[in-house]
Fold this sequence. Notes:
The protein is an alpha/beta fold. The protein folds into two domains: 2-129, Alpha-Beta Barrel (TIM Barrel), CATH 3.20.20.30; 131-192, no CATH class. The chain has seven helices and seven strands.
Amino acid sequence: MRVGLDLRGLADVGQMRTLAAEAEQLGLWAVLVGATPGTEVLDAVTVARATSAVAVAVFVDGHTAHPTTIAEEIAVLDHLSRRRALAVVDADEPTVDHVRRLLHAEIVDGFALAPPPAQTAMPVWSASEVAVAELGDDLVAGRSIIDARRDAGCTHLFVRWSGELLPLARHLATRAAGPDFPQIVADMADVVDPSPPTGEI
């Protein structure tokens, strides 16, 4: 299972950029950006420009704009992020399907995106397909949630984490990769390079 950081709810774009850059440096798979409807992609572009490797997932309210407009904006994000964009569309299935088909270079209602996204197969998910977990900053509770989601077959999980990101990356993102993760590796990393105290380890 891959773990990403949910940045929705942060009003400060500067804080989003900083956390996204730190998440990238620590090896997290993605960040999830969302904002006031109509400005989500702008904030995602800002985050994409502050990073170079982490995937940038944008949570778009599909009720506030035409699906073609949403697809056009996400295609631009994909180019500006150099093929790192993921789309999460909060809308009914026909709207999500419309956006998905356009972003997969199909002609929909006589319209095709020009230019299409940079990715040949851009991930487009409905909001109901995206797993999100509130972890606070508690590593013990986080372990239980990560283990349960991983063991249930979840492939991608965005987490809300209020503490320092280093413990999240060391103790939870690594654990999400497989059930046989040796906890002693994360514990030894804390001894060699102490992280800020966050919850009980």
